[in-house]
């Protein structure tokens, strides 16, 4: 091993005469550990929110939809035509009604969706979140109810509820009224649960008095961020009366909020890492003062300035390496177990931190990515190494005569 490595390792492991130097060195390392660990955990949580938006919310709600002002009568022809677009993976019809659901005097607004069970699985992941009957098992009069709506109404599987929808044509006309039996509960653990009800396409058509027509056609897009361009392409070939909407209108603000929060929190925690890394500066400056006599002796024995600088770069780099390594290890563990830990804390305290009627997701998700781990590790190590340059330069400029004159 070269001389800077040998002496740098010994300086790092040895006890110092000045206990304050040891204390500040420990604080700088702990600060680096906490900053790295927290940054990795927070980024994993933000990634989790992003994943839940894509897989849960947009897995149930439409990614892109095509409507007609009077309803789409020949929907099969249009669905087949839409599927020819290279970026459209699948298309399925739906009927959407806004109304009120009531049970035993309890009333709450809901969005009633009528879907074709034979086609819906191509455009959504709804069946993955159902407790009870699946879409294909629904019979006439059956209804799948969001968990939030069921909780507000006090409804369980097998209960009967009434759905009331205003007339589409004349607001003064009598509303449509239908009775359904709750056949299953939809639990996505997102805001979707607070206003969703699903029935067979035929049942929804009867309630809406649409005949064979549907409200719109739902599309599954290969690239979510290309949904707006896909709709433009489709609209260019359709007649007057058709219009489209995509997920950026319904949930775009949520996605942007998650991305902005991720960037801001990441920036703040990167600053914490920077502060912790540059605490190495104060630590090494005090080490240089503490070791002036030894530095002077090394210089009189022929050590060059580069060797002296190397000693303190090695020492600071080791502090950064240990702090970053321990921080990454704790961050990886925290990212993998933060969801279970928060759930256990909620259960122990009897408190629900993330209610789905306030937050888009009712639990704390986490999605650990090795790319984040690598990026954080490289940045933390780089900051630590940069922080060693000034103290190392100070050490290399120590004058042996001045240092040994007052050394005892």
List the helices and strands and how they pair.
Elements: H1 3-13, H2 19-60, E1 64-72, H3 75-83, E2 88-103, E3 106-115, H4 117-123, E4 130-132, E5 142-146, H5 147-153, E6 160-165, E7 176-186, E8 196-200, H6 201-208, E9 214-221, H7 227-235, E10 242-246, H8 247-250, H9 252-290, H10 292-300, H11 305-349, H12 370-396, H13 400-405
Describe this structure in words.
With 408 residues, the protein is α+β, with helices and mostly antiparallel strands. The chain has 13 helices and ten strands. A six-stranded mixed beta barrel has the order 2-3-8-5-7-6, surrounded by four helices. Helix 9 crosses helix 11 and helix 9 packs parallel to helix 12. The longest helix is centred in the last third of the chain and has 45 residues. InterPro entries: ABC3_permease_C, Lipoprotein-release_system, LolCE_TM, MacB_PCD. Pfam families: FtsX, MacB_PCD. Keywords: Cell membrane, Lipoprotein, Membrane, Transmembrane, Transmembrane helix, Transport. It is a multi-pass membrane protein.
Figure out the total of helices.
Answer: 13
Low-confidence stretches: none
Element pattern in H and E: HHEHEEHEEHEEEHEHEHHHHHH
Which descriptor suits the 3D outline? elongated
What proportion strand?
A: 15-25%
**Helicity level:** 40-55%
Indicate how many domains the architecture comprises. Answer: 2
Query: What is the count of β-strands?
Result: 10
Largest sheet: 6 strands, mixed, barrel
Structural category is alpha+beta
| First-residue to last-residue Cα separation | 30 Å
- Alpha-carbon Rg, integer: 32 Å
Sequence of strands across the biggest β-sheet: 2-3-8-5-7-6
């Amino acid at each position: 091993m070269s001389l800077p490595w040998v002496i740098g390792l010994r300086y790092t492991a040895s006890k110092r005469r000045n206990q304050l130097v040891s204390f500040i060195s420990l604080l700088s390392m702990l600060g680096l550990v906490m900053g790295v660990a927290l940054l990795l955990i927070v980024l994993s949580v933000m990634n989790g929110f992003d994943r839940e938006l894509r897989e849960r919310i947009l897995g149930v709600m439409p990614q892109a939809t095509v409507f007609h002002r009077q309803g789409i009568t020949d929907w099969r022809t249009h669905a087949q035509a839409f599927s020819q677009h290279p970026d459209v993976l699948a298309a399925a019809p739906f009927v959407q009604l806004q109304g009120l659901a009531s049970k035993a005097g309890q009333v709450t607004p809901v969005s009633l969706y009528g879907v074709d069970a034979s086609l819906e699985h191509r455009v959504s992941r709804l069946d993955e979140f159902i407790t009870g009957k699946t879409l294909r098992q629904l019979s006439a009069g059956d209804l799948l109810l969001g968990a939030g709506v069921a909780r507000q109404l006090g409804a369980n599987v097998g209960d009967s509820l009434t759905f009331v929808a205003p007339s589409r044509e004349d607001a003064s006309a009598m509303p449509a009224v239908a009775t359904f039996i709750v056949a299953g509960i939809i639990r996505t653990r997102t805001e979707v649960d607070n206003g969703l009800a699903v029935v067979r396409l035929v049942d929804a058509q009867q309630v809406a008095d649409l005949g064979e027509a549907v409200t719109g056609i739902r599309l599954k897009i290969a690239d979510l961020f290309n949904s707006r361009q896909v709709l433009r392409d489709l609209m260019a070939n359709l007649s007057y009366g058709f219009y489209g909407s995509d997920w950026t209108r319904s949930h775009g603000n949520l996605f942007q909020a998650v991305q902005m929060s991720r960037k801001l929190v990441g920036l703040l925690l990167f600053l914490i890492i920077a502060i912790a890394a540059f605490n190495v500066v104060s630590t090494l400056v005090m080490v240089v003062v503490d070791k002036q006599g030894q530095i002077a002796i090394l210089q009189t024995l022929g050590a060059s300035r580069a060797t002296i600088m190397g000693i303190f770069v090695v020492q600071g780099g080791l502090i950064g390496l240990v702090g970053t390594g321990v921080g990454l290890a704790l961050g990886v563990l925290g990212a993998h177990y933060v969801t279970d830990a928060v759930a256990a804390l909620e259960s122990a305290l009897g408190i629900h931190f993330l209610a789905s009627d306030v937050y888009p997701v009712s639990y704390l998700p986490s999605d650990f990515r090795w790319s984040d781990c690598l990026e954080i590790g490289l940045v933390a190590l780089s900051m630590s190494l940069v922080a060693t340059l000034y103290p190392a330069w100070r050490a290399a400029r120590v004058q042996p005569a001045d240092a040994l004159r007052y050394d005892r």
